[in-house]
Amino acid sequence: xxxxxxxxxxxxxxxxxxxxxxxxxxxxxxxxxxxxxxxxxxxxxxxxxxxxxxxxxxxxxxxxxxxxxxxxxxxxxxxxxxxxxxxxxxxxxxxxxxxxxxxxxxxxxxxxxxxxxxxxxxxxxxxxxxxxxxxxxxxxxxxxxxxxxxxxxxxxxxxxxxxxxxxxxxxxxxxxxxxxxxxxxxxxxxxxxxxxxxxxxxxxxxxxxxxxxxxxxxxxxxxxxxxxxxxxxxxxxxxxxxxxxxxxxxxxxxxxxxxxxxxxxxxxxxxxxx
Length: 274
What we know:
The chain is an alpha/beta fold. The chain folds into two domains: 3-108 and 262-271, Aldehyde Oxidoreductase, domain 3 (Alpha-Beta Complex); 114-259, TIM Barrel (Alpha-Beta Barrel), CATH 3.20.20. The protein contains eleven helices and twelve strands. Strand 9, helix 9 (214-223) and strand 10 form a beta-alpha-beta unit. Helix 1 (3-14) crosses helix 4, helix 4 packs across helix 5 (135-144) and helix 8 packs parallel to helix 9 (214-223). The protein is elongated. The protein starts with a helix and ends with a strand.
């Protein structure tokens, strides 16, 4: 599904039978300017979706951006201006702001996590815990915040998790079966030190250290050779992530980047010229 498809669906959801309030005012086109303003410090993401939403309702609108996606915007700054028929812009306002607020919120939270691990070798990753159908936009927002994308979908990479392990009766059996049918690199989830040792013996490419406390992570890393990449996951908060990074893991995956990011506070201010 393209961004335009998402926008059309979102506008249909918001206006299944038109905007009965604005249309009942029975006004002629009202030319003017609107300003998109940050009401808190944020990292900008979703500019393209915002602009496409505006232009879908008002094709003649001119949108002038003061910032690029990935830029830090401070509270009170104008992010962009819109010139055109403000009645049509008004119809698009909520959907456009929903896209930009949601995506800027993800980028902003990601930037906070990335800042926490500065000075270490660790990279911050997202997960597949995304809003249905918004994964491409949300994972791009993670990039705007300075994070990296884990696998985009189940077709992208092999990750053997606890259910696969249980299904096959153990890590070794799962890995051996997969290697019969695929040449893709293997990442395997380990939830204890015994499983870590098993993954090392199988020489998998990457081990996901799942829901381990820092003491257990330290012991796990001592067992894993440098030739195998490491990823820590589970209960990764802003207050904890730095201490985990300092242990020396290659990656920390954080589901909260997309499933728990607060919406960035932005507003669209109209100059009706009255």
